[in-house]
Amino acid sequence: MGDRSYSLKNVLLETGFDYIDKDVIKTKTGLFCVEVDNGKIKNIKPNQPSANLIDAKGYLMIPAFKDMHAHLDKMLFGLPWQAVSEKRKTVKDMIAYEQKMIPIWLETSIERTEKMIDMLQGFGTNFIRSHFNVDPTSGLDSLKNLEKALQNKKSTADAELVAFPQHGLFYTDTLPLLKDVAKMDAVSFIGGVDPYSLDGSIEKAMGAIVQLALDHNKGVDVHLHEMGKSGIKTIEFLIDRTLENPQLRGKAFMSHAFALSRLSTLEAEKIAARLAEAGVGIVSSVPFGDIIIPIPILRKHGVEVLVGNDNIQDHWNTFGSGNMLQKANLIAELYGYRTEFQLSRTLSFATRYKLPLDDNGNQQWPKAGDAADMVFIDASCSAEAVSRISPVKSLIHNGTVVF
């Protein structure tokens, strides 16, 4: 739709909770008209049957989804199916494979990145935090191709970029490249990966990453797969540096942080309190099996836990669905969020904590002046949408109807 001023009718919105003995038993909803103008929600009015209005068909309107951990630059999406190889077991094995394959992948990465964005949008996502490789093999080409794809999709999707030295800062000679990339306005975060096991020193690698972020007013988002003491020490390093440099508060993240899965409840409580004190967040793809991240403990202490799909179809993993609602559903199942109230709150992991109702059942979204970023779901309420992974029927990004 080219016209960004329009009105929708038969929009299902959540209006409150029904209670019995202080327990939420149902989410109240109603049909409304929603006016959109120049990328903003202009007004919410009582429903009317006018034929001049676009019919939302009674679908539930909720905030659009945000995928906070993706690798749009090197997915295998769009190439022939390829499962993960048992021959590549370590990060260093993967680096060797990437050094061989990246030049081939780059030949078609622009087109395939656009297709990947299309798929994410089909599941209701309009915002993506994407890492892009910075390494001697990629040079700046991963960034250049990713920027071209995002430019081609700029009317329907937003993104923020993380400069990601996948092959190590010092394991390969990547630090000089990362210093160049850190100066670029297009880059929002400086990344890293497993500083101890890959680069041989937490202090050297993490120190360089944090200093680049400070020097260029960037955030930090480091991949940490390491278990045990080195993993916890790396998390503690980022906490300490963020406490020393408050400008990093709310801009410093550990992705994966698998070491948290090996902590006792008491240990998890202590580090969660420190993460919250420093304003350091955790980004997770919600692993399960022998790796369970203590997300409920982190949230109890106020740690920002962001969620993303990470691997969708790539050489690391093929199980990412691209569906943020499915991620919320996984969290609900994994941590036992089963009630109407709990399920409605779990939607927040797909929307980066933007919810139609606050914890007391007061309507807080949408409001006049809000960005017109929303999805329409075939569900009666947020709780059902999470529990049933209900189909996404439409996405609107900044007032533009994507589909």
From TrEMBL:
<dbReference type="InterPro" id="IPR052349">
    <property type="entry name" value="Metallo-hydrolase_Enzymes"/>
</dbReference>
<dbReference type="GO" id="GO:0016814">
    <property type="term" value="F:hydrolase activity, acting on carbon-nitrogen (but not peptide) bonds, in cyclic amidines"/>
</dbReference>
<dbReference type="InterPro" id="IPR011059">
    <property type="entry name" value="Metal-dep_hydrolase_composite"/>
</dbReference>
<feature type="domain" description="Amidohydrolase 3">
    <location>
        <begin position="206"/>
        <end position="403"/>
    </location>
</feature>
<dbReference type="Pfam" id="PF07969">
    <property type="entry name" value="Amidohydro_3"/>
</dbReference>
<keyword id="KW-0378">Hydrolase</keyword>
<dbReference type="InterPro" id="IPR013108">
    <property type="entry name" value="Amidohydro_3"/>
</dbReference>
<protein>
    <submittedName>
        <fullName>Amidohydrolase family protein</fullName>
    </submittedName>
</protein>
<dbReference type="InterPro" id="IPR032466">
    <property type="entry name" value="Metal_Hydrolase"/>
</dbReference>
